[in-house]
Amino acid sequence: MKKILLLSDTHSYIDDDILKYVQQADEVWHAGDIGNLIVTDTIKKLKPLRAVYGNIDDTKARMEFPEDNRFMCEGVDVLITHIGGYPGKYSPCIRETIYQNPPKLFICGHSHILKVMPDKKLNLLHMNPGAIGKHGFQNVRTMLRFTIDGPKIDNLEVIEFKK
């Protein structure tokens, strides 16, 4: 079993509140718009990190992280990208990949809107952790944590902070 902390849209922001949850996780996944790489460097010192770059990320972030990251975690096929849309309205840049070879867990960021929903047609679970950074329109900063145990995604929690 792995405990996952999922965050996105840090926009160069990291603090002790976020790091407290990083320390409780087995792995941290970042769905893009990292901002300053101090964010990911800080996380990597504490836990294994899987990340993608987002539309605000510079050349350094794009050299270190891919646009799309597909991997297996326990028994779950995971696909992370920054701009991905959601079931019924996937982004054109990822739509073909999802329809031709759907993952079990599809993760994206970008919208700053927390959303977890199944795609019953493709038999996948979509997650967007919202935004944990202080930049953007959101009034509440959010991230997700959950467990993956074999093929089972479980124990989903929303973590909220005031902006």
Radius of gyration: 14 Å
Supply the helix-strand structural class. alpha/beta
* Strand order in the sheet with the most strands: 3-2-1-11-12
Mean pLDDT: 97
- Count every beta strand, where a strand is a DSSP E run of 2 or more residues: 12
Number of discrete helical segments = 4
Describe the biggest sheet? Answer: 5 strands, mixed
Principal-axis shape equals globular
Helix-strand topology string: EHEHEHEEEEHEEEEE
Give the CA-CA distance, first to last residue. 32 Å
Low-confidence stretches: none
Helix content: 10-25%
Strand content: 35-45%
Task: Characterize the structure shown.
There is one protein chain. The protein is an alpha/beta fold. 20% of the residues lie in helices and 40% in strands. The protein contains four helices and twelve strands; from the N terminus they run βαβαβαββββαβββββ. The protein has helices at 16-24, 38-46, 59-64, 92-100, and strands at 2-7, 27-30, 49-51, 68-73, 76-81, 85-86, 89-90, 105-107, 114-119, 124-129, 140-149, 152-162. The strands form three sheets. The protein has a five-stranded mixed β-sheet with strand order 3-2-1-11-12, with helices on one face. Strands 4-5-8-10-9 form a five-stranded mixed β-sheet, with no helix packed on it. Strands 6-7 form a two-stranded antiparallel sheet. Strand 11 (140-149) and strand 12 form a beta hairpin.
